Amino acid sequence: MPAGDDYLIFRPDDVDLSRSPLRRSIAEPTYVLGAFNPGLTRLPNGNLLLMVRVAEALRDPVQGDSARAIRWTPEGYVLDRHALHGLHIDDPRQFALKDRNPRLLGLTSLSWLLPVELDVQGRDIVRIHYDKAIEPSASFLDYGVEDARISRVGDTWWMTVCGVSAERHCTAMYRSTNGLDYDLLGVVLDHQNKDMLLFEGKVADKYMALTRPLGEVYFAYPQDSEWLGGPAINMAQSPDGLHWKPLDTPGIRARKGTTSTQRIGGGSPPILTDDGWLMLYHGVEKQGLVGVYRSFWALLDRDDPARILRLEDGAPLFEADPALTADIAHQMYLPTPVVFTTGIVDAGDHYIVAHGEADLACRITHTPKERFA
Questions:
Q1: I need a surface site. Which of 267, 335, 358, 372 has the fewest CB within 10 A?
Q2: What is the greatest pairwise CA distance in the chain?
Q3: Is 60 exceeded by the pLDDT of residue 2?
Q4: Alpha-carbon distances, residue 228 vs 101, 195, 212, 233 (angstroms)
Q5: Cα–Cα distance, 223 to 133 (Å, whole number)
């Protein structure tokens, strides 16, 4: 049993790759680059569910004069070859084709989702549901299914994922009636609109969601503005959970004088409290190859979520903790501190919060509600 209120609950070595969906097609040795960024929800039986992103990589991605990438096809998984002389390989997660504008990337791993059931308090693993793993099943997911976020609205569980393919880098939607078995509904947001997560409840009978569009060009605010330009959290609404209209008003933006100088994005699905919609989000400080990821929080008006009641973007709510990953530090491939909050559930006098830690493992934190007073 994990000790204390902040611990790793699931690690790369907890994945049984003999039960990976890739085994049906690929016999070459693979390993778990990371088991991280888990969606979080509570099941009808009271237990918690982590939807863990498993990034599975070839042991030997470079063979001869080529780098190889894993790709799903309707007939099975295949290995694509890219000539080394045409690549930049300076990031353990990906390679880039030389002299291409905009950039064209290839991944060194393929991600699929593994449902891991925890006990009511999230301290013990009850069951790992390999039979319900979610793998690519459409061409817009053929390089992987990444970073699930799960929101329960009424009696339905909605799960957004980042779909990776050469066709588009999109947000896809899954839906479940029991929190464990999910059906793919297709693309809901197009190219590079990441970190989409639904509010856990409707506003004026409409679904609400956070989004985070990415792009090649952003425009500067006036020099005397408190805001920084760049990727920010926007909001959208929908009549049915599938067709989304962005709100005209801005959402949450990075501010000068904070550590979130590179970008910000959604973390946990907003949950309704007595004071409004509580949301946790990540802010990134530019540093090294990836940046430093920290978690912050905000409170939104219950009837008009575009109205921000409180924005706590100074002292971080969560930071990476090297002590948590000390015993698996030899598996770490990112030297920069990263905590990536992905879910929150109510546990009475406290919240149970899920994160990806160091892009490597799944972290659980028990946080007193007084922390948000």
A1: 335
A2: 61
A3: no
A4: 25, 19, 15, 13
A5: 49
Q: What is the pLDDT of residues 162-214, one digit of tens each?
A: 999 999 999 999 999 999 999 999 999 998 898 999 999 999 999 999 999 99
The count of other CB atoms within 10 Å of the CB of residue 94 is: 15
| Greater pLDDT, 101 or 347 | 347
Q: Which residue has the tokens 């680059």?
A: 33
Buried b (16+ CB within 10 A) or exposed e, 226-245: eebebbbbbbbbbeebeebe
Residue 222: strand, helix, or coil: coil
CATH number of the domain bearing residue 157: 2.115.10.20
In-domain check, residue 288: yes
H helical segments located in the chain? none
Q: How far is CA 64 from CA 83, 85, 86, 103, 359, in A?
A: 9, 11, 14, 24, 29
User: DSSP assignment, residue 221?
Assistant: P
What span, in angstroms and rounded, lies between the C-alpha atoms of 260 and 292? 9
How many CA atoms lie within 13 Å of 192's alpha carbon, on the beta-carbon side?
8
CB 25 within 8 A of CB 77: yes
Provide the residue range defining the domain that includes 263.
Answer: 6-372
Q: What is the distance between the alpha carbons of residues 19 and 28, in angstroms, rounded to a whole number?
A: 14
Tally of domains within the chain: 1
**Closest C-alpha among 176, 171, 172 to residue 158:** 176
| 303 falls within a domain | yes
Phi, psi dihedrals of residue 293, rounded to the nearest 5°: -100, 130
